[in-house]
Amino acid sequence: MFSFKKSTVPAAAALLMALTLPAAALAEEAAGSAAAEPAAKTAPKPAPKAKKAKKHAQKGAKPAVKAKTATKAAAPAEKSAAKPAAKAAAQEQKEAAKAPAPEAAKETANAPAVDQGKDPLQEASELAKEQQQKEQSLQSQHPANIAVLHVNGSVITKLDLDRALKVMMAQSQVKQPLAADAQKEAEAAVLDQLTSVELLYQEAVKLEIPDLDKQINDKVSENRAKFKTDQEFIDALKSVDMTMQDMQDFTRKDIVINNFIEQKFTAKAAATDAESKKFYEENKDQYFKVPEAVRASHILVSVDEKATPEERKRAKEKAEALLKRVKAGEDFAAVAKAESSCPSASQGGDLGAFGRGEMVPAFEKAAFSMKTGDVSGVVESEFGYHIIKVTDRQEAGAEKFENVKDKIADFLKRQKVQQEVTTLVEQLKKTAKIEKN
Q: Can you give the residue ranges of the PpiC domain (predicted)?
């Protein structure tokens, strides 16, 4: 199944996005958690392991038929080969940086509404003000504020470098400390990205955004609203070496760069049906395979594992009686709702779609041997007695082009945007005055 785990957004914009993550994610980054990325939906669905399923069946917690968890996720658009530590660190940063900046802007736009009666940043700002004043005098003399690079006169400090490296390492889940050579490579890669960000920003700021200050305040406010208290928000910022002013500054750059990319490149980029079809045909076997799957409903007459032979006999007789009612024309879903002892009864016995290896053997064997619309006989499993109805089947093969062409077109469009922005940044580097300290 085609996946967008490997994004194609330029590293420059992606680094800004990494440094201006929604505030709720800042603490996770500091703890070394990778930000989750959207991926194409896949079937079949994950299911509990057999022993857990049995336990849930007895408690009436979950459908009592699934055998083990499906652990294979949708295939990523690219797979990175194992590399030595030094190259791996730099590569991890580049891959982690590739997340769609325009998408991030959409996500924050959907954040919970802020109370219009009060500035949501006021209390946080007041609480942070005193701390910042105490820190400013110290920070001005701090070694981290030593300039490491000048880009057309703009300064990139050691603090900028360390902060970006910390965020990117946490996002990439790269263990620290790195070996000396790997550390140098990582710093060089991040410094190159910071340079690209600054050059792109210097170009992007030429486009006027009338309501820029409002957009900045709104976005920061949305981030603040994700925290229960102002102190938690401030602590989250500190965890990635940021102040309130830093958050506003990075948010400004993020908005300015995203606006520039949208107007200059994204709005003009497009992928034709022919290009999408070509990509589909060339990658069909790698990205668009779908496994055999069945969708089924069932009626379960459960039996405790310690049940006596007589109790099992009575349960089987009940299942056979229910089967006769279904065969006589009663609605399967209605009988399941009224009689099934599986939690799926509330959905008319519907278990959704599942692949091979997800259900207990007896259930799986029966379900995969049936045609759509068929109703089984009484099937015995470790959970009791089942009556199964197959409601849909999916044969193994490739996903239809019509089902994925829009996703492919969007993917190709973002690739084109990446290429355009990368080309622009390289051109800007050729004429820029870049001085290392």
A: 291-392
Mean pLDDT estimate for the chain: 75
Per-residue model confidence as pLDDT tens digits over 393-420:
988 888 889 999 999 999 999 999 999 9
CATH ID of 11-37+99-113+122-274+408-436, from 1.10.3720.10, 3.40.50.150, 1.10.4030.10, 3.40.30.10: 1.10.4030.10
Could you tell me the two tokens for 127? Answer: 């609480």
Query: In DSSP terms, which residues pair with 295 in a beta bridge?
Result: 353, 392
Tally of residues, the chain: 437
Higher pLDDT, 112 or 429: 429
| Cβ contact 382:52 at 8 Å | no
Please tell me the distance from the alpha carbon of residue 20 to that of residue 216, in angstroms, as a whole number.
Answer: 11
Q: Residue 310: CA atoms inside 13 Å, Cβ hemisphere, count?
A: 0
SS (H, E, C) 315-327: HHHHHHHHHHHHH
Q: Which helix (H) or strand (E) holds 299?
A: strand 293-302
User: Which tokens is 267 given?
Assistant: 């709005």
Could you identify the residue written with the tokens 């009575």? 314
Q: Are 247 and 16 in contact (CB under 8 A)?
A: no
Over its C-alpha atoms, the chain yields an Rg (Å, rounded) of 28
Domain 51-70+292-395 belongs to what architecture?
Roll (3.10)
Domain ranges of the chain: 11-37+99-113+122-274+408-436, 51-70+292-395
**Fold identical between 11-37+99-113+122-274+408-436 and 51-70+292-395?**
no
Provide the token pair at 233. 């928000």
* Side-chain-facing half-sphere of 133: CA atoms under 13 Å: 5
Q: Which residues, other chains included, contact 106 with Cβ-Cβ below 8 Å and sequence gap of 6+?
A: none
